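Encode chain A's predicted structure.
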Amino acid sequence: MNAGQSASFRRLFDEIGPVDSVGIEERVAKYATRSIKKGAKLWGLYRAVSMLDLTTLEGKDTPGKIASLCQKALRPLDDPNVPSVAAVCVYPAMVRHAKKHVGGTAVKVASVAMAFPSGQTPLKTRLAEVKAAVAAGADEIDMVINRGAFLAGEFAEVRDEIAAVVEECGSAALKVILEVSELETYDNIRAASFLAMETIRAGDFIKTSTGKTSLNATLGNNQVMIEAIRDFYLDTGIAIGMKPAGGIRTAKQALQFLIAVKETLGDEWLTNKRYRFGASSLLNDLLRQIEKEKSGAYQAPYYFSDAAESY
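Encoded structure for chain A:
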C-alpha cells in the first residue's frame, strides 16, 4: 500500500472508527452458548427458511433445473406451516425462466450481475448485464464490488460504480457483495460496508460473499457488517439489509446467525426484507430439523429433495 492509499484508508477509518477484532471474536463465540427452547427454536427454523435465497449458478443450468428450483422455493415441504423461501437467485440468462414460475408470488427472482464473481470486465459491459437482468424481470440484483479499486484506495470509483448500478436497478432491490475474503481485515470489511451503505437505498442489502472464494460467511465477518449496519442506522435512520452467503450449511449455524441479528440489530431485522441467507444447501437441514422438532425423530437426509448448490 503506497502513501496515497494509506492516506485514503486513514481518512476513512478516522471517519467510521476501527474494529475491535478481539471483541468481535469474543462476542461471536458467545452466540454458540445461547440456549434456545423448543418453541423459539421452531420459530427460528421457520424464519430461517423464509430468509433463504435458493441459488443455482452453474454453466449447466437449464430451464428444467430452474423450474425444479422454483417449485422447491414455493413449497419447500408438504406442510402449510413451512413458508416459501425469500427468493431464487440465478444468472441473468435464467431470469425469464424463473419469472415464469414464481412471478406474482411472494418469492422474488434475484440475479447476480456485474461480471459475477470476479467483477473484472469493463464497467459498460457490467452495467449492460444489470440492465438485461432487470429487463428480464429480476426483482433483485446481487452485484460484486470492484475489490481492486477498493484495496487501491480508489473509494470514489467504488462509490460511482455502485451508484451506476443503483440507477440501472430502478425499482429492483440491490445487494452489494463485498467478497470479504479478499478484503483481508475486519477494518476493511467495515470500511467497504460503509462505502456501500452510503450509496445504496433503504431496503437494499450488503452481502458477504460470492461463494466462489475459500472463505465465505462467518459469524465474525457477519458481526462486523451488522454492527456497521447498526451504526449507520443510528447515524442516518436508513435501514440497510444484510445477507451472509456461502458456508452456512446447518440449521444450528443459521440459528446462531439469527441470534447475532437479534442481539445486535433487534427484532426489526428478523425479516426477509432485512436479512437473507445465501445458502441453498442449508434448506434441507432446516427442513430436517423442523421435522425433528415436530415428530421427535430425524428423517433420513434423502427424504428431502436436493437443493441447488450454495452461493
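Residues 3-52+110-303 form a domain with the TIM Barrel fold (CATH 3.20.20.70).
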